[in-house]
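Translate structure to sequence.
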């Protein structure tokens, strides 16, 4: 079981992120429309590869897992 201190730190980080999202939400390009996400649309073909979104999600999950590992 994670210690209370680590859980409070994680909760604080989550609250800060939520607060920033509410404050700067309209100005933030949301996942799937970030610069670096590849989107190609032609007549009968469309290709989408969210590389920037994938990298950001990977970094966030790495940080969260390192906080909660034993």
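Result:
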């Amino acid at each position: 079981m994670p210690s209370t201190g680590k859980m409070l730190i994680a909760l604080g980080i989550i609250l800060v992120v939520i607060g920033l999202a509410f404050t700067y939400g309209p100005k933030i390009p949301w996942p799937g429309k970030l610069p670096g996400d590849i989107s190609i649309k032609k007549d009968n073909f469309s290709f989408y590869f969210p590389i920037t979104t994938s990298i950001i999600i990977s970094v966030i999950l790495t940080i969260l897992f390192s906080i909660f590992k034993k």
